[in-house]
Amino acid sequence: MTHLNFETRMPLGQAVIDQFLGLRPHPTKIQATYVWIDGTGENLRSKTRTFDRLPKKIEDYPIWNYDGSSTGQAKGRDSDRYLRPVAAYPDPFLGGANKLVMCDTLDHEMQPTATNHRQACAEIMNEIRDTRPWFGMEQEYLIVDRDEHPLGWPKHGFPAPQGKYYCSVGADRAFGREVVETHYRACLHAGLNIFGTNAEVTPGQWEFQIGTCEGIDMGDQLWMSRYILHRVAEQFGVCVSLDPKPKVTMGDWNGAGCHTNFSTAEMRAPGGIAAIEAAMEGLKRTHLEAMKVYDPHGGEDNLRRLTGRHETSSADKFSWGVANRGCSIRIPRQVAAERKGYLEDRRPSSNCDPYQVTAMIAQSILL
């Protein structure tokens, strides 16, 4: 029997909702779950440890180690890698004073591992901090069964054409709302700046938005929101795909992106439209470079998605416009009308590294 010979139907979460057997969080001990990006640059790992008391600041969380040879980040004969805590959030799963701890990864010389792009991003954000860079990222994703088939799709066929699924209501068109609403509430309890959520164009596809976040906080919060999403889906017995265009959706279905909104204090001020339009030159100049870091495979993933169809631009050509979802960069109509606000970079893939994306946008426009 292969892994393709079984199905998972919603809601399997009923079997694991009370996973702690009614036990409340411990009155004095603290559980800290360290979360990190593995060697794929897109998957997350975690492990948990106990503290006798709650650390007061992020620097008080100790550096920990892990087996990098089992995460694609080291060889077996030199396998120890380090976890350096960079941000801590209330744990919505364990409750109490327990924490989720976002970490970056370091090698045996305490240098960033190959998939640790946070340190470089932090240096850029520190350099431009006086511009007050604000970000918001729109994370699209597909809920799939454990056989990697989209939730709500017939096992031996296709659903009705897209058109009725976007922001939909009803059991015949909105698939997996249990996961979506639980994730939303969990993010709120974790203290993340989750702005909203909605069903997307492809059946089984959803989106949530994280922001507004300033500087490096954007990458930290999006990665942690992804971790929470995978954990919630796990409880319901389903999986989350961040693939921008899975094989099953290669037909007339929208892919998944991670549209990134950006502004500076100058752009948000009266007359800021001039700064927004001026930013287009820098974004155009670095287009090909940006495309290589807007997904974790050097741009290969985005080639399946950015075809000029299904509300996307072409991967090989830079473009911008007002209210145009077929452009690389969209200026929202309200921004054009008010002559201030922000721009939306529609190129990043759903499986992008937000540290790389935000760093690239900042570099292109401000450095």
Automatic annotation (TrEMBL):
Gene3D superfamilies linked to this entry: Glutamine synthetase, N-terminal domain, Glutamine synthetase/guanido kinase, catalytic domain
InterPro entries per the UniProt record, alphabetical: Gln_synt_N, Gln_synt_N_sf, Gln_synth/guanido_kin_cat_dom, Gln_synth_cat_dom, Gln_synth_N_conserv_site, Glutamine_Synthetase
Location of the GS beta-grasp domain: 28-110
Enzyme class: ligase
Keyword terms of this UniProt record: ATP-binding, Ligase, Nucleotide-binding
EC number, UniProt record: 6.3.1.2
SMART domains: Gln-synt_C (SM01230)
Biological processes per GO annotation: glutamine biosynthetic process
Cellular component aspect of the GO annotation: cytoplasm
Domain GS catalytic: 117-367
Pfam family, one: Gln-synt_C
Source organism superkingdom: Eukaryota
Gene Ontology MF, one: ATP binding
Family classification: Belongs to the glutamine synthetase family.
Subunit structure: Homooctamer.
Protein name per UniProt: glutamine synthetase
Organism taxonomic ancestry: Eukaryota, Metazoa, Ecdysozoa, Nematoda, Chromadorea
